[in-house]
Amino acid sequence: MECFLGVDIGSISTKAVILSQRREIIASSYLETKGNPMQAVKRVLKNLQEQIDEQEVKIVGVGTTGSARKLMGTILGATVIKNEITAHAVGTCNYYPDVRTILEIGGQDSKIILLKDKIVTDYAMNTLCAAGTGAFLSSQAARLDVQVEDFGKIALTSKNPTNIAARCTVFAESDLVHKMQMGYKKEDIIAGLCKSVALNYLNNVGKGKRIEPPIIFQGGVSKNIGVKHFFEEILGEEVQVSEVGHLMGAIGVAILASLSPKRCHFTFDFSMEDFETKGCECKGCPNHCEIIAVRQNKKLIDSWGNRCERGTIKIDGLN
Predict the structure, then answer these.
(1) How is 166-217 classified by DSSP, letter by letter?
(2) CA 302, CA 294: separation in Å to the nearest integer?
(3) Structure pTM?
């Protein structure tokens, strides 16, 4: 059976799926990146390998997306390397053909994607501050001594959510400590945090955007039913959450790999120890671009990061 591998390498989590030609999920994996994308990909691939019969499944296309898409795309010999906006849009349209708005909140960033007739018409991203993201909620959960997975159901028990200033992580933590010292109920504080995530997202990432239904909420934070509830309360619209929303980027890039004419014969029998990455600063112009070079068995196979031809590193003949 010919299948397609999609890998989404994020700053907090790494996701991977194997799709059949019918776009059915044959295997999937979701693990923490832990600051090492190469090891994270190695672990998710091992997890996928354990879920399939390699005699029955033949991977003929590989796609990568996420913050480390170029690096891992080079190492895996990807046939498609795409940005997160495209991958999430394609993956979501596969399940919700009429989707108009995608709300996505991940570990350290968030994005909004607007579509019409399956075409992306506008988007915005928040990558400057971690306020209102999964990392923000996890840090507050630790402070409150509550499992972040329990945030949603606890938030829904509150009848009077506490106002939390969450436009900045530092201010939010300060405000949280102040409200705890004043004696606010824990469930009200948690509800206030969930509501502040929704408000922060809409006031920053979604500012000036026309949010129309159908609205799909995805990313790791979409599993928080408290945040979903407050999105619906503020927007006055139904917000849908897919069971595979946390895998949507990987699904999307796997679909893109299936649509590409390029084919490969991917096997799990390779060692990432054969690859070495090295960064350098180009002195060719005032841009001072940071260029990343990847070598396999000490042979240069790819490089990127240059914004002009002066920083181009020629593959052939370079030691």
Answers:
(1) -SSHHHHHHHHHHHHHHT--HHHHHHHHHHHHHHHHHHHTTTT----SSEEE
(2) 5
(3) 0.83
